[in-house]
C-alpha cells in the first residue's frame, strides 16, 4: 500500500519534545536538511509541575528495581516513590495517572495509556520504571511550555487555530482536514467541541509526533512520501488507536 503526503519544509522537526526510540531510549535524530527550527521552549518559559530543572546534583537515586538518571529532580523521585506502594520499582497505568495528576490537572486513562505505550521499556508489559518515568515527566514539561505559549488568551484551553500554530512551531504542517479530524474528537466537558485542555493537547500532540516519527522511518530522505505494505501500515496506526 502506498502512502504519500507532501509536506512543506516544516514537516519534520528535530525540535519537538523527544519521544523514546524502541520504547524507552530517548530519541536523538540526526539533523535533517533544511529543518533548522529552534525549540519553542527554553528556560525563559516557566514550566508548571513537570520538567523541573535538574541542577540538584548528579547522584543516582536507587528506586528498588532501577535507577533514576543522574541529576533527576527530587520532586520526580518523590512522585514515583509515592505511588509505587508495593516498592516493586515499577508503576502501572493507574499509579502513573495518580503520579501525574493533581488537583487542577487530571489526565485521562486514554492519555495515560498512550504515554505508557510510548515510554515503557519494550521488555516490560504495561508498566514503567524510574528512568522511563523521568523521561516522561520531562517530556510533559516541554509540552506544558508549548501549551502555555500558545494559550494566548490564558483560558486554559487551546482552539483549533492555536493547535495549528503549536504543531507548526514544532515542525508539523498538519493539513486543515487532518486538524479538523484531530480536534473534533475532543470537547471541553460541556458538549462544545473544538477546544483542548492540556490533557487532550498532550494526547493529540503525541499522536501527531508519534505517527510522524513512524512515517519518517519509512521516509529516510525526508521526501514526504513512503511506500508501506498493508501490514506495516496497520502496525503503525493501530497502537495509537487502541492504546
TrEMBL record:
Ranges of biased composition (kind: Polar residues): 39-49
Alphabetic keyword roster: Calcium
InterPro entries: CML48/49/50, EF-hand-dom_pair, EF_Hand_1_Ca_BS, EF_hand_dom
Domain EF-hand: 71-106, 138-173
Top-level taxon of the source organism: Eukaryota
GO molecular function: calcium ion binding
Pfam assignment, any one: EF-hand_6
Record Gene3D superfamilies: EF-hand (1.10.238.10)
Region Disordered, annotated ranges: 1-49
Biased composition (Low complexity): 1-20
Protein name per its UniProtKB record: EF-hand domain-containing protein
Organism in which the protein naturally occurs: Tetracentron sinense
Amino acid at each position: 500500500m502506498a502512502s504519500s503526503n507532501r509536506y512543506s519544509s516544516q514537516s519534520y522537526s528535530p525540535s519537538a519534545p523527544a519521544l523514546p526510540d524502541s520504547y524507552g531510549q530517548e530519541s536523538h535524530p540526526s539533523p535533517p536538511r533544511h529543518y533548522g527550527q529552534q525549540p519553542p521552549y527554553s528556560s525563559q518559559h516557566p514550566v508548571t509541575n513537570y520538567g523541573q530543572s535538574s541542577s540538584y546534583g548528579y547522584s543516582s537515586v536507587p528506586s528498588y528495581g532501577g535507577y533514576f538518571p543522574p541529576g533527576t529532580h527530587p520532586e520526580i523521585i518523590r512522585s514515583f516513590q509515592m505511588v509505587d506502594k508495593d516498592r516493586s520499582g515499577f508503576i502501572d497505568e493507574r499509579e502513573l495517572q495518580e503520579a501525574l495528576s493533581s488537583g487542577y490537572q487530571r489526565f485521562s486513562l486514554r492519555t495515560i495509556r498512550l504515554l505508557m505505550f510510548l515510554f515503557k521499556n519494550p521488555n516490560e508489559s504495561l508498566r514503567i520504571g524510574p528512568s522511563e518515568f523521568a523521561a516522561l515527566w520531562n517530556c510533559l514539561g516541554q509540552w506544558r511550555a508549548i501549551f502555555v505559549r500558545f494559550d494566548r488568551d490564558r483560558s486554559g484551553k487551546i482552539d483549533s487555530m492555536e493547535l495549528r500554530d503549536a504543531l507548526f512551531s514544532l515542525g508539523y504542517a498538519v493539513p486543515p482536514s487532518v486538524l479538523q479530524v484531530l480536534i473534533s474528537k475532543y470537547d471541553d466537558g460541556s458538549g462544545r467541541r473544538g477546544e483542548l485542555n492540556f490533557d487532550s493537547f498532550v494526547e493529540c500532540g503525541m499522536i501527531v509526533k508519534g505517527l510522524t516519527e513512524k512515517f519518517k522511518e519509512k521516509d529516510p530522505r525526508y521526501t514526504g512520501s513512503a511506500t508501506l505494505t498493508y501490514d506495516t501500515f496497520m502496525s503503525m496506526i493501530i497502537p495509537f488507536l487502541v492504546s
